Amino acid sequence: MAIWDDVLTEQDRIVYERAGWGKPAGYGQRPALLIVDVIYNFVGDVPKPILESIQTWRYSCGEVGWQGVYALQKLIAAARRKHMPLFYTTWERRADKADNGAWNRKNYRIDDPIDVIGHKGNEIVAEVAPEPHDFTFVKKKPSAFFGTPLVSYLIDMKVDTIILTGTTTSGCIRATAVDGFSYNYYVVVPEECVWDRGEVSHKINLFDINEKYGDVRKLDDVLQYIDGLPDDLYEGILPWVGAAQGAG
Predict the structure, then answer these.
(1) If 0-12 CB within 10 Å is exposed, 13-18 middle and 19+ buried, where does residue 227 land?
(2) Is 27-240 assigned to CATH 3.40.630.40?
(3) Active-site hit among 144, 150, 172, 188
């Protein structure tokens, strides 16, 4: 049973099936791991039920976010064993909101300082924090591609597959999946490694991604794929790969 089956109508199922959507795209040969906005603002500083967590962290996804963090730890460890490139995004705004753009028009609590530059809420959660050789950048819009150098790095590294993780499924994950698809990358979303503050939004956006933009896979399936990669896939492209293997 797919995670979205309990919110999908029978009519929708038939319509999408007859249109031919949902064909598995599979994996490419050269993956990168993309970790989108896994910051305290979106999970809180400790695991709590969402209605408790949002009392302090109004953007929080609560306990489901921390479940995603713990699953992501396994995925990151597997990616590091294969010396894959890891890309992290975070989010922050200026105190005067001048860099916030259209976000200023869509939230009643935009004056809250929780996402201002320097606030802990913008920090990547320590349990999955980047290492010095990872790539980290701030984005201002939902997609990790929009206004960032991400695609230039992917081209330079000859990446063909994006393993997409983080939050929120209905916002930044969906937007990044659509852009990744638009750039003709294989897009793979490990189900346990993405989350949302809205239960129905999470499920139906995973359905949409799986039908049209990429593959939603179980974490075990993604781990099996990564484990089957050669250890030297990025040797000669990422300068620390050969050094890491030589040191071992």
Answers:
(1) exposed
(2) no
(3) 172
